[in-house]
Amino acid sequence: MRLFAGYDLLQTDAGPSGLAYNALLRAGVRPDVVYVGRSGRRELEAATRQSCTPAVVTPSGEVIASVPGIVAWATGAARA
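Structure (tokenized):
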């Protein structure tokens, strides 16, 4: 699983990417983090067809964008 994150994840866990990352960790998921700066934007857009972080690409190829969507997915994954 890949988490496309902004550099806010390096500075605080209270930003959007930090909230998404911590939700995944609580669900027992250790994502591969791709930090999106200028150079990572193309990879993000190619993988997710969107340009905003945070976004998750699951092993099955499902794209989950936005903090609420990632938290909802992680909550469901933790119950499974």
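The longest helix spans residues 67-79. The first strand starts at residue 2 and ends at 5.
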